[in-house]
Design goal:
Layout: E1 3-4, E2 13-18, H1 24-28, H2 34-45, E3 53-59, E4 64-69, H3 74-82, H4 88-101, E5 108-112, E6 118-119, E7 129-131, E8 141-142, E9 148-150, E10 153-155, E11 162-165, H5 172-179, E12 183-189, H6 194-200, E13 202-203, E14 217-220, H7 224-227, E15 236-239, E16 245-256, E17 261-265, E18 290-294, E19 301-302, E20 306-316
Parallel strand pairs: 7-8
Antiparallel strand pairs: 1-20, 2-4, 2-5, 3-4, 5-6, 7-11, 9-10, 11-20, 12-16, 13-19, 14-18, 15-16, 16-20, 17-18
Helix pairs in contact: 2-4, 3-4
């Protein structure tokens, strides 16, 4: 396995500030050392030691300043911007003043990691978790070897993935009361769809397998490996300044109302000649990998029977198609949708 993970304390946090595009030349050229001055003032606004926030780059065409918050201060900045810190209102006021003092007409602030554009108000960092392959007492790594019973279905450790909590309940008690008895499932998607899903829910499809076209439904799976197929979770890559290339994949972690599952069917990706020999996920039979949930009449997005509460990200320094659990991708019917 060539993927890797970080603890919440190790991973820098990306903060994007969107500018009025007419003001980007000053920032792109770092006129009068504005990067350093702005970074220093932001550190003061967040009450963290200086030089722990830096301007990574400026996208001149889109008018976006990319800031990096160094560990271990990422969580504090996330909590301040997310509104979960006790003095969040005061910190946000200080940030706004910092922007005004340097004539930075900020239109929006976006929190996220790995280049995803996620509105900060939708995320809940209290439930961020890193999942490993074995118990690691030296790091904040979560792992279990035997499946957890979730509503009567098995929940296996999503090793190699990191979860970013989505704000759906005020606390664990409320979450368990509403969805604790529901099944756990996943839904793979492209990175650019993340914000839409967070604000609207999973969009129904009227085409696909098992039911005739025109029947509104959503597909989920109990297997994160199945949902990570590039037909669903299309990988994207970023090249850092030092030349390192990282690949990213996005899958949503959901709770599904058991009563809403109308059909459980087999995988639909493996080419016919390999169906008898290739197993998608060692934890599940190929015959149970697709769960179909019907949408209500006139409903474009399913919001009552599916709740997305975790944004799962897998990071790798190699092409995900070469990862050990994903060798079967190369034999799938839809392998051609993913080009290196």
């Amino acid at each position: 396995m060539n993927s890797f993970y970080y603890s919440a304390q190790e991973m820098p946090v990306l903060v994007q500030l969107e500018l009025d595009t007419a003001n980007t030349d000053r920032w792109a050229n770092n006129s009068d050392g504005i990067w350093e001055e702005f970074s220093s003032n932001l550190c003061k606004a967040f009450l963290i030691p200086t030089k722990n926030i830096r301007v990574e780059n400026v996208d001149r065409t889109k008018g976006i300043i990319h800031l990096i918050v160094q560990p271990p201060f990422g969580k504090k900045v996330v909590d301040d911007l997310n509104g979960t810190a006790p003095d969040a209102a005061a910190r946000m006021q200080a940030v706004r003043k910092c922007c005004e003092d340097l004539n930075v007409p900020v239109e929006s602030i976006t929190l996220g990691e790995f280049g995803l554009k996620i509105e900060d108000k939708l995320m809940d960092p209290r439930w961020n978790k890193v999942y490993g392959w074995q118990v690691d007492t030296t790091k904040d790594i979560h792992y279990w070897s035997s499946p957890i019973n979730q509503g009567g279905k098995p929940y296996f450790c999503p090793s190699g993935w990191k979860r970013f909590g989505i704000k759906v309940a005020k606390d664990n008690t409320e979450f368990d009361a509403r969805w604790g008895h529901w099944y756990l499932a996943y839904h793979g998607t492209r990175g650019e769809n993340a914000s839409k899903i967070l604000t609207s829910g999973l969009k129904v499809s009227t085409t696909g397998c098992f039911y005739q076209d025109g029947t509104a439904r959503v597909y989920v799976s109990p297997s994160i490996e199945y949902c990570a197929h590039p037909r669903y979770a299309l990988p994207w890559k970023q090249t850092k300044k030092n030349g390192e290339v990282f690949w990213y994949q996005l899958v949503f972690q959901c709770r599904v109302n058991p009563a809403s599952i109308k059909f459980i069917g087999p995988e639909t990706l493996i080419h016919d000649q390999y169906k008898a020999t290739v197993k998608v996920d060692p934890n599940f039979n190929n015959s149970e990998l697709e769960w179909i949930i019907f949408g209500k009449e006139g409903e474009q997005f399913i919001t009552e029977d599916i709740v997305c509460y975790g944004l799962m990200l897998r990071v790798s320094n190699v092409d995900p198609a070469t990862l050990t659990p994903s060798v079967w991708w190369k034999r799938s019917l839809y392998a051609d949708v993913y080009k290196k």
